[in-house]
Specification:
The chain has 498 residues and is α/β, with parallel strands linked by helices. It contains 11 helices and 27 strands. It is globular and about 65 Å long. The mean pLDDT is 98. The protein binds alpha-L-arabinofuranose.
Amino acid sequence: MEKTHVILDPAYQIAPVDSRIFGGFLEHMGRAIYEGVFDPNSTHADENGFRKDVLRALRQLRMTAMRYPGGNFASGYHWMDGIGPKELRPTVRELAWQSIEPNQFGTDEFMKMASMMEWTPMLTLNLGTGTPEEARNWVEYCNCAVGSRYADLRAKNGSKAPFQVKLWCLGNEMDGSWQLGHVPADLYAIYAQQAAKLMKDTDPSIETVACGTCSTSLPTYMEWDRTVLEYIGSYADYISLHRYVGNRMGDTPDYLAITNSIDQQIEEMDAVCRFVQARSKTKKRHYLCFDEWNIWYRKRSAEHTNGSGKFAPHLIEEQYNLEDALVVAGFLNSFIRHADIVKIANLAQIVNVIAPIQTRGDDMLLQTIFYPFAMYSSRRDGIALLPSIRGPAYESPSYGRVNTIDISAILGDGVLHIFLVNRNISETAEIEIDHGRGKLISVISSEVVSGSDPNVCNTYENPKAICNQPLQTVKVSEGKGSVQLPPLSVAAITFKTA
Ligand code: AHR
């Protein structure tokens, strides 16, 4: 294969990488909470009923913003069902996933977990069947000092100090007809504005995320977003977007080119934000919150999405392979390259439900997608650089022309982190890295995830079929780097810089 030349000049900076792009998402769905992070009957349970093995694994992902309690679940959830003495909490019929919800895990448990895990809590309101007042009461419960009704209730439930929840999503996927309480854009905009106003009146320091278009294939794509942003104005700080992808054609090179369309989605949504900003002649610019993203296409049918009235049913438990791990890396590359636009992103989800971690009884399995996320997340501090790339490319039937090597880079304090995906399925790539006006001194660390078969998964029998390995083929000479990257691989490399 022809060599790839990359220039990463320290002067060509995009923006500081917001650490919140390494967020996660925990929904009351399937076995994400029960049998996932919370399982008092497990031998791994701590005194709170939290699964220590799962939390230990999650710690390696160093996740930041953690979105909770949904998802579609949020649109029928009444947060007061999940607080107070556990024996008094109602068991309810949950309509989004047709499951039984016993409310044994709620706001207080989530906040305890978030604090243990150093997550930034991000709560999704019920704007489907809930009211703006219920939303504002939740803000008081979480954020206000004692001395009023809901703050006192929090203290009574064991937490005198406020939880300080800064990030609030104004509903979930309200543009989708499947959503409980789905309404047209103009009506949603009114509900969201009403809720956000009451919430910001209760705690002016919070930030809110308006529901944007959740699928580029919806006919209201962009028009929904324009309508909502124009109406809600400064009551929202971010607009959300979601993306679930898959290799529906069974064509690996085509699938790996999907980053083109992720870049496009981000840029189109940003165009709406800028359009609204220009039209309203305001300094307020809305940024993007990519609060659900992942691979989800195998477990889409009713048997995987309808809980049939059961507690903790097996829902959308997608099994991930090597090519999925490379696509996860592609999403992260795209977020880093758009560091000036994307400020929050949440891998959906974290345990069992389309997740990097699976449980089976007391066993636990790390899926392929766990590894790239961990490799990137541990190298996230710094400023995204604009890569200039010259090298082989190919035509993807679905996503157009794409470079064989996908890249992003973060300039840290005396270090340069580079993330590379080799989309070629059979050939090793030669990559030369020129740090422009800077100089590479040495390789501090380098890891790779690769394999010969894009369909290989980790299993309980062979749990490390796909995992991170040291990458030995990275060199520095005369201030430049060179990398030999195996086919079908993602690498994360940290260089010391002058
Ligand atoms: O993550 C699974 C579901 O996907 C979420 O509940 C919903 O928001 C999206 O459609």
